[in-house]
């Protein structure tokens, strides 16, 4: 359960936004409809069900609500689909490289997905995860055509995203030895 969009839609089914205790500023700014807050609220409810009734009850609680969602929501894991396609075609897991930049008062993230040294797609988003999903969607469209209507194959288990190797840092210059001084008076110690 990592997809924020899916969790937010599950929270909307239960109208969890109306139960959130928010400060005046965020409540006026539409905080009750923020996907991240709704997703966190649903995870909290699911965690409470788990603690109260156990794993099986939590699993069935989640599954029952998930199955009631419209089918397009289930097909938004572009990173998982790309991982499966990349492993089939290239024999390796895709690597995401991204950066964030401030645009006005908000951050904008850009991500590029690679298979080996070859860039497959570029994406943009308000969060790093959105940018990576958008890059994966663009890569899938390049590799297999239109993906928003394509049926999802059996979802591959996604491992943590591997990043492209960083450039090695310059070694630090050694500090000049300093003569010891008294902490209390700052005088040199003999």
Fold and architecture overview:
The chain is of the alpha+beta class and about 190 residues long. The protein has 2 domains: about 70 residues, Orthogonal Bundle (Ribonuclease iii, N-terminal Endonuclease Domain, Chain A); about 70 residues, Double Stranded RNA Binding Domain. It has a 3-stranded antiparallel β-sheet. Strand 1 and strand 2 form a beta hairpin.
Topology (elements, then pairings):
Blueprint: H1 4-13, H2 24-28, H3 35-53, H4 55-67, H5 71-74, H6 78-90, E1 95-103, E2 106-115, E3 118-125, H7 128-144
Antiparallel strand pairs: 1-2, 2-3
Helix pairs in contact: 1-3, 3-4, 6-7
Brief summary:
With 190 residues, this protein is an alpha+beta fold. It has two domains: 4-74, Ribonuclease iii, N-terminal Endonuclease Domain, Chain A (Orthogonal Bundle), CATH 1.10.1520; 78-144, Double Stranded RNA Binding Domain (2-Layer Sandwich), CATH 3.30.160.20.
Can you tell me the CATH superfamily of the largest domain? Ribonuclease III domain
What's the overall geometry?
extended
- Determine the mean pLDDT: 81
User: How many distinct beta strands?
Assistant: 3
Overall domain count: 2
What is the level 1 CATH name of the largest domain? Mainly Alpha
What fraction of residues sit in β-strands? 5-15%
Keywords:
alpha+beta; Ribonuclease iii, N-terminal Endonuclease Domain, Chain A; Double Stranded RNA Binding Domain; 2 domains; extended
């Amino acid at each position: 359960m990592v997809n924020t969009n899916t969790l937010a839609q599950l929270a909307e089914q239960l109208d969890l936004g109306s139960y959130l205790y928010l400060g005046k500023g965020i409540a006026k700014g539409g905080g009750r409809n923020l996907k991240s807050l709704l997703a966190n609220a649903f995870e909290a409810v699911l965690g409470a069900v788990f603690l109260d009734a156990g794993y099986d009850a939590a699993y069935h609680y989640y599954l029952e609500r998930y199955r009631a969602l419209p089918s397009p929501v289930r097909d938004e894991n572009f990173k998982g689909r790309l991982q499966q396609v990349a492993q089939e075609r290239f024999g390796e897991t895709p690597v995401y490289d991204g950066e964030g930049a401030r645009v006005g008062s908000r951050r904008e993230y850009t991500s590029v997905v690679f298979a080996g040294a070859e860039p497959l797609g570029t994406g943009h988003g308000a969060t790093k995860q959105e940018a990576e999903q958008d890059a994966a969607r663009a890569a899938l469209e390049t590799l297999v055509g239109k993906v928003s209507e394509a049926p999802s194959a059996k979802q591959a288990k996604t491992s943590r995203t591997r990043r492209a190797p960083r450039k090695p840092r310059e070694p630090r210059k050694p500090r000049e030895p300093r003569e010891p001084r008294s902490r209390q008076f700052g005088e040199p110690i003999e």
